[in-house]
Amino acid sequence: MDKVDYQILEILKSNGRERASEISKEVHLTVSTVIERIRKLEQTGVIKGYTVITDDPQVGNDVTVVIEISLEHPKYEDAFIESINSHPNIISCYYLTGEFDYMLKITCRSSQHLEEIHRWIKDQPGVRKTRTHYVLRTVKNIYTSLPEEDTLQDKRK
């Protein structure tokens, strides 16, 4: 990847539906070259997909929480991960170091709905302990970070 690939990614990060013709103007390449570069970024797995980002309250998810989870033993990890991946309200799952093994981000309709999800999580085999944090306000929520310009130059040396 070179500087132009990162510029293309930065544009697509802001608007995944940006037209190749508009991107080509910003990066000073032909439309066909931009399309070719995007295809290569997709084929190599740098771009994993495109998605819609919704406003949670507008689609009915008024509650956002982060739940830390500790498992009794690593033997439960595979089944736990499979269960977590099957639940539509669990939108992120991170494997951690420290006191807790996993951190889940959950969006749901209400406190009652959260209680149902929390009970479901606690019923998963091997779940030993949970700690729930209500999100009062989202301050920043981006899905990708790209290296800054000076980091790119260091990487190319």
TrEMBL record:
Cited Pfam families: AsnC_trans_reg (PF01037), HTH_24 (PF13412)
PROSITE patterns reported for this sequence: HTH_ASNC_2
Keywords from the named record: DNA-binding, Transcription, Transcription regulation
Signal peptide positions (record): none
SMART domains: HTH_ASNC (SM00344)
Start and end residues of each HTH asnC-type domain: 1-62
UniProt xrefs under PANTHER family: LEUCINE-RESPONSIVE REGULATORY PROTEIN (PTHR30154), TRANSCRIPTIONAL REGULATOR AZLB (PTHR30154:SF34)
Protein name as it appears in the record: Lrp/AsnC family transcriptional regulator
The organism of origin for this protein: Ohessyouella blattaphilus
